[in-house]
Design brief:
The complex is a heterodimer of chains A (841) and B (251).
Chain A lengths: L1 H51 L4 E5 L7 H8 L4 E7 L8 E2 L14 E5 L9 E6 L7 E5 H7 L6 E5 L6 E12 L9 E5 L1 H7 L7 E6 L5 H12 L3 E5 H48 L1 H9 L4 H40 L13 H27 L5 H4 L10 H23 L5 H22 L1 H32 L1 H39 L4 E5 L8 H8 L4 E14 L2 E7 L5 H4 L4 E4 L8 E5 H7 L6 E5 L5 E10 L8 E3 L1 H7 L7 E6 L5 H14 L3 E5 H44 L1 H9 L4 H37 L12 H18 L1 H9 L2 H5 L2
Parallel strand pairs in A: 4-9, 6-8, 14-19, 16-18
Antiparallel strand pairs in A: 1-10, 1-11, 2-10, 3-7, 5-8, 6-9, 7-8, 12-20, 12-21, 13-14, 13-20, 15-18, 16-19, 17-18
Chain B lengths: L11 E12 L6 E12 L3 E5 L6 H8 L7 E6 L2 E2 L5 H11 E4 L11 H5 L1 H5 L6 H10 L15 H14 L4 E5 L7 H18 L3 E4 L3 H4 L4 E6 L2 E7 L3 H13 L1
Parallel strand pairs in B: 3-8, 3-9, 6-7, 7-8
Antiparallel strand pairs in B: 1-2, 1-4, 4-5, 9-10
Helix pairs in contact in B: 5-6, 6-7
Classes of the chains: A alpha+beta (841), B alpha/beta (251).
């Protein structure tokens, strides 16, 4: 008897440890998200305070109104204002220093920020560290760490990428500066120029804001009233607290999105944990059915038995969440390192374990464990006292037709919610996410309850080749996986959830790539494209000239985009040299003719004309840069499946709508008779002068976008890896419990001549088959989800459905492989069974 | 009826030399087998009897390669078990030894036929179809071959177990209380078949039992007490067994 008790304890030790591990990981991840979020908010909060602390008031335009030295003068005369300074700031990453070796300084995470040097010491959050401040044209200063990290030396002259039409400037580094107390820039690179020089280099006409320091003679609030009075309603005035709040809010919204992304993955992982824990408790309760029956026989009420089981769950949950909090702290460091490794460039920050983090971690961990144990506990409470004597046949408790019925209902409800979310035309993001998340959760539970119907046939199908290869151990593995469809289904379901999300992402990703390829192949005739390496950047006008004079390039087609309003609808407006249109693009003319394009006409994309209810010959009011509108006649309609959106106008017309001298990108073709290599060499020569550019052939562009989509998919898979890992823990756990349950059977197999390695193989392949069932179900569900997402998403974003069969097959194969590995531990336990003990078990 | 060509065998199918098995150490040391020398002739049905703790199960487990001796040797055919590795011992059990246990003899996921051929299948050996047919017919299971164990009665399950034990034509079949869980009528059928396997097919069977009636089917009965063989009967009947048991226990 003692022997059995000992075995029970040993089996429970593993069960408890593995069950707890799921919770440890889930709670760890949630805690890490909270710790990171707290730490980053503190860190960026400090940064916001350092940026804003010296500025008493700041004025910025709230509409398209001027903000020049005239307005600065007016503000300066207000009583109580000590100094007012107009400030310029460039768009992030549009000013980039070039190292002596020709490469640009451009961190992949935090931006390069360029601004005008504020001369007043109070308003300027930086102080000169070496050299001096910039005082005129041809001078710049850089923050001390960026200078040291990139080898810039004060007194030397360097080139910089700037957003002018030339795209480049040369300036002497006259000094380095310290931001705040210890140059804590959170990874950003800071550059400053003298104010008038900044205006030229940043291509500005107006200040971005005016910073004001008061002289202390009047209450700042009163000064503010006067400033607002002078400036009128088209300007916003903010005091230090407003600025700080606005700056912090900007940082926090980013941090919050980031933290919620992490939490979303943690929630998926915890959801998966529910299945595993429920499964474990279910199996263990059915193994302890005699003990439960005995408790009932000697007078324990169902409630008491149920409470005892829930108590066990509470203890497991408490212990696991406590460990999870500790793991979370470690994970926070790990995540920081991982995110920095993929180029997030996070600053150094504290990792505070706040009360909220602790309460949430414990609450979630204990809650999830107890919810998971609830159904098994109820079933345990309902154990008939007579089972103390009769025992049961080892099959899992209850279930059957009723659970199939419930599964069907839940799956239908889930499908309904998900369908409504996808096709119901809901605008609120929160409602949409709630419906999608809730619907998916219901759907998963429903499918899990229904999947025992298919678990056995899938197991046998998957196992058929295995029993061909491994003969008897293989076919025993197959039958073992199929013998308890409910257990196999629940175990596999945990894997299904993670893998279905991965598969769905694969389907969407493949469709995106397919759309992109189709778009490029059908509408782009050009061979080459030059575009800025940063989103905010533009291609300097000078580049077009360089390309024109390149020997092996032709049909140079520079393109500009802007946003406007056509008959009240938001619309893009693009322009390009019309004589190059046919050489570079095939926009799929639907109606009219591009030949009729002039300064009073436009070409329109079909979907916009449909929205507006207009056709060729009709006119529409296009909003101009000065706020007025101009009626333009539609002379051509082009197809939806092209890279241009909205309307296409002549260059002269475009300049009355948009305000931009540089190009968004430039398309070009290879001169007939020249080779790709020659063209690439020409582009490389141009790139040497404009290192902010990327030049790619259409094929390279396709590859780079495909690469980006793939990278996103890998990152997503990596994050879902947590849920997948937990699912494999579940497989190990279930296998270990099944092994324990089948001790006698395994002993018999050994007695009649199954070798230890045959037994290993049998157990490992059973684990592999269970994984395979999960992966197949996951891939199937994921494909269905993916197809629905593609159908529900507007055609402009996702149109030509493509199924990544190879990736999906690979996913299933990898899952089976990992299942083999997961089976290793249970297999070792099975192999170690003492034959004699096992037979007399 | 098919005449069996019995495999060429040594006259002695299994034997022990000074078989000793000691459990525990110091004060708690228990000697389960005390230098037992015994041999089992080929084509003979031997029953081993004795009170609980007499060492009869230990003797059988050691003979069958399920347990290792503290000292002494077990020889099956001409193979010395004490010199075999764990793996070779398993392969020996698969090919040279058959088992019938008291209960839980069958793998629930396999059909009756698959259970019968299990040791052969584990070795990827094709069963001899004629012999298989013979065995199946003898245990009267032809129309039950496709059934899973839970679709068979207790007696049928034990018959499947006996058929499995015989299917590979092992050197020795060891049976541990094979009728312990059966009613007397069903049990008699099993015992009758085991005796026929010895008489007609030249099979060697060693059976551990409590039951004098079961033992009376054997050609020879060994009586164990305190780890030693204390008595032996040839061509026993129930009465002679009972009286020997009384003598042995009253010693």
């Amino acid at each position: 008897m003692w022997n059995i008790t000992k075995k029970n304890v040993a089996a429970n030790k593993i069960r408890l440890a593995l069950t707890a591990l799921a919770i440890v990981l889930g709670v760890g991840f949630i805690s890490a998200a909270n710790i990171l979020s707290d730490g980053l908010q503190d860190s960026f909060g400090d940064l916001a305070a350092e940026i804003t602390q010296g500025t008493d008031l700041q004025v910025s335009p709230d509409a398209d109104v001027p903000l020049t030295s005239e307005e600065v003068e007016a503000i300066s005369t207000i009583d109580g204002v000590r100094v007012a300074e107009g400030q310029h700031s460039a768009d992030d990453n549009t000013v980039l220093p070039i190292r002596p070796d020709g490469t640009v300084v451009q961190p992949s995470g935090p931006p390069v920020i360029a601004f005008s040097w504020t001369t007043d010491g109070q308003l300027n959050p930086t102080t000169i560290e070496t050299g001096r401040a910039p005082e005129g044209p041809g001078e710049w200063v850089l923050d001390m760490d960026a200078a040291a990290d990139n080898g810039f030396v004060v007194g030397e002259t360097y080139d910089l990428v700037v957003p002018t039409q030339e795209g480049r400037t040369t300036a002497e580094l006259v000094g380095t500066f310290r931001f705040g107390a210890d140059n804590q820039t959170n990874g950003a690179v800071l550059i400053a120029f003298e104010t008038e020089e900044a205006e030229v280099l940043f291509d500005r006409e107006n200040f971005s804001d005016v910073a004001i320091a008061t002289d202390g003679s009047r209450d700042i609030g009163n000064v503010r009233v006067d400033v607002e009075g002078i400036m009128g309603p088209n300007y916003v005035t903010q005091d230090t607290a407003d600025l700080n709040a606005a700056q912090s809010a900007e940082f926090n919204s980013f941090i919050s999105i980031f933290a919620w992304v992490l939490r979303a993955f943690a929630i998926v992982a915890l959801f998966v944990s529910v299945f595993i824990i429920a499964n474990t408790f279910n199996i263990v309760m059915s193994q302890r059915v005699r003990e439960l029956g005995l408790l009932r026989a000697i007078g324990a009420t169902p409630k008491q038995v149920q409470r005892a089981v829930l108590g066990e769950a509470f203890v497991v949950g408490l212990a696991a969440s406590s460990v999870g909090l500790g793991i979370g702290l470690g994970l926070a460091y790990g995540l920081e390192a991982a995110l920095n490794a993929i180029g997030a460039g996070l600053p150094d920050f504290d990792k505070p374990l706040s009360i909220a983090t602790i309460v949430i971690g414990l609450g979630v961990g204990i809650g999830v464990t107890m919810i998971s144990a609830w159904v098994p506990a109820r079933k345990a409470g309902r154990t008939a006292p007579v089972t103390a004597i009769s025992g049961n046949d080892g099959s899992d408790l209850a279930g059957g037709r009723r659970s199939l019925l419930i599964g069907g209902v839940l799956a239908l409800a889930g499908a309904g919610f998900t369908g409504f979310a996808l096709f119901g035309g809901i605008d609120s993001t929160a409602t949409l996410l709630g419906l999608l998340g809730g619907g998916a959760a219901l759907l998963f539970i429903g499918i899990t309850l229904l999947s025992p119907l298919v678990a056995a046939p899938i197991s046998r199908t998957l196992g058929a080749p295995i029993s061909k290869i491994y003969r008897k151990p293989g076919s025993l593995a197959k039958e073992n996986a199929a013998r308890n469809p409910k257990r196999t289904a629940t175990t596999a379901a945990a894997l299904m959830i993670g893998l279905s999300l991965v598969s769905m992402a694969f389907v969407v990703g493949q469709t995106l790539k397919n759309d992109l390829n189709a778009l490029l192949e059908t509408t782009v005739q050009a061979d080459y494209a030059a575009f800025p390496s940063s989103d905010a950047g533009l291609v300097p006008e000078a580049v077009a000239g360089e390309m024109e004079s390149a020997e092996h390039l032709t049909s140079i087609t520079p393109i500009k985009n802007w946003g406007t309003d056509v008959n009240g609808e938001d619309s893009d407006v693009s322009t390009l040299p019309l004589d190059q249109l046919d050489a570079s693009f095939d926009l799929g003319l639907v109606d009219g003719s591009y030949a009729d394009l002039n300064d009073d006409t436009m070409a329109m994309r079909e979907n916009l004309s449909d929205t507006l209810g207009l056709g060729v010959g009709d006119s529409a009011a296009v909003e101009l840069a000065d706020g007025s509108t101009k009626d333009l006649e539609i002379v051509a309609l082009f197809s939806d499946g092209t890279i241009f959106e909205g309307i296409l106008v002549t260059d002269a017309r475009w300049n009355t709508i948009g305000d931009q001298d540089n190009f968004d990108w430039i398309a070009a073709s290879i001169v007939e008779g020249s080779t790709t290599e020659q063209a690439a060499a020409d582009m490389d020569a141009i790139r040497a002068a404009f290192p902010q550019l990327v030049a790619q052939s259409t094929g390279e562009y396709q590859e780079s976008i495909s690469g980006q989509v793939d990278q996103l998919l890998y990152i997503l898979t990596g994050f879902l890896g947590l849920a997948i890992l937990i699912a494999f823990i579940g497989i190990i756990n279930t296998m270990a419990l099944s092994i324990f349950e089948r001790t006698r059977e395994l002993g018999l197999l050994r007695a009649v001549g199954m070798t230890r390695s045959q037994m290993h193989r049998m157990v490992r392949w059973e684990a592999a088959i269970v994984s395979g069932v999960g992966a197949l179900l996951g891939a199937a569900v994921g494909v269905v989800f993916g197809v629905l997402v593609v159908i529900a998403t507007p055609d402009e974003i996702l149109n030509r459905l493509a199924l990544p069969w190879l990736q999906l097959a690979l996913l299933v194969a990898v899952a089976i492989g990992v299942g083999l590995v997961a089976g290793f531990m249970p297999a070792r336990r099975a192999g170690k069974l003492n034959v004699l003990d096992a037979i007399s078990h | 009826m098919l005449v069996m060509e019995a495999p060429v065998r040594t006259a002695v199918a299994a034997r022990t030399e000074g078989a000793t098995k000691v459990y525990g150490d110091g004060d708690t040391q228990v000697t389960a087998l005390d230098a037992v020398d015994v041999s089992f002739s080929a084509a003979e049905f031997t029953a081993i009897m004795g009170p609980s703790g007499s060492g009869k199960s230990t003797l059988m487990h050691s003979l069958a390669g399920l347990d290792r001796l503290s000292s002494g040797r077990v020889i099956i055919g001409d193979t010395d078990l004490s010199k075999l590795s764990e793996k070779d011992l398993t392969l020996l059990r698969r090919t040279k030894i058959g088992f019938v246990f008291q209960a839980f003899n069958l793998i629930p996921t396999l059909t009756a036929e698959e259970n019968i051929t299990l040791p052969l299948d584990l070795g990827n050996t094709r069963p001899d179809p004629e012999w298989l047919d013979e065995v199946v017919r003898a245990v009267d299971l032809i129309d039950r071959l496709g059934h899973k164990p839970n679709e068979l009665s207790g007696g049928q399950q034990q018959r499947v177990a006996v058929a499995r034990a015989l299917a590979s034509r092992p050197e020795v079949v060891f049976a541990d209380e094979p009728t312990g869980n059966l009613d007397s009528h069903t049990g008699a059928g099993i015992l009758d078949f085991m005796r026929r396997a010895v008489r007609e097919y030249g099979q060697t069977i060693v059976m551990v039992t409590h039951d004098p009636v079961a033992a009376s089917y054997a050609d020879r009965v060994l009586f164990l007490a305190d780890g030693q063989i204390v008595s032996e009967l040839r061509d026993p009947d129930t009465d002679s067994i009972l009286s020997t048991l009384r003598t042995a226990s009253g010693r």
